[in-house]
Design goal:
mainly beta, 2 domains, four-stranded antiparallel sheet, four-stranded mixed sheet, Immunoglobulin-like
């Protein structure tokens, strides 16, 4: 009889310990709540222009705030966030949904038109030979300077940039237009 009482007592004791242990584990083992997924995960936009981001993994309505509204602003329409560039700089758009899930999108606002573009951003030329690069956009007249004239020289003819290899090495050529827009061409001389 004493053995039966001892076994019942022991079983009840372990049942209580197990219940307390299981109850306390429930609170410690909650899975981490996932953040909102934003596509694209980062944005580059020009001042006065907009870019859109699609939010998934959350519940509408979404609220958005900018870390710096002087750089970029945002508004939400269902799961689409429209980001507007205000002026050059960086900001972060913070997004939250109705269940307190959060996400963020880094934003770089830069005037894309402030840089000249070329048909070739990098060239390879043999020493003694020439390579021609065409400027895309910008306003003539252009000026061009080679960073190291011992490796390459540069001239401009009819709005085209003519780069001549002098000796083996690497350098760059900076081109500027009349409005002070600039761009760089990487040059490798073989």
């Amino acid at each position: 009889m004493k053995k039966v009482k001892f076994i019942k007592f022991t079983m009840a004791f372990f049942a209580c310990v197990l219940a307390v242990t299981m109850g306390s584990c429930d609170k410690n083992d909650d899975p981490k709540v996932p953040d909102l997924k934003c596509t694209p995960s980062k944005v580059e936009v020009a001042p006065g222009k907009t870019a859109t981001v699609t939010v998934s993994g959350g519940t509408a309505p979404f609220t958005v705030t900018s870390s710096d509204s002087k750089i970029a602003t945002a508004k939400a329409d269902k799961n689409t966030i429209t980001i507007t560039g205000v002026k050059n700089g960086t900001a972060t758009i913070l997004i939250s949904d109705s269940k307190k899930l959060t996400g963020k999108v880094p934003v770089m606002v830069k005037d894309m038109a402030s840089e000249l573009d070329f048909d070739k951003k990098s060239i390879s030329v043999t020493a003694g030979k020439e390579e021609t690069v065409t400027v895309k956009g910008g306003s003539a007249p252009f000026t061009a300077t080679a960073k190291d004239t011992k490796i390459a020289t540069v001239t401009i003819k009819d709005g085209k940039i003519i780069i001549k290899g002098v000796k083996a090495g690497s350098t760059s050529v900076t081109v500027t237009d009349k409005d002070k827009k600039a761009g760089t061409i990487s040059v490798t001389v073989k």
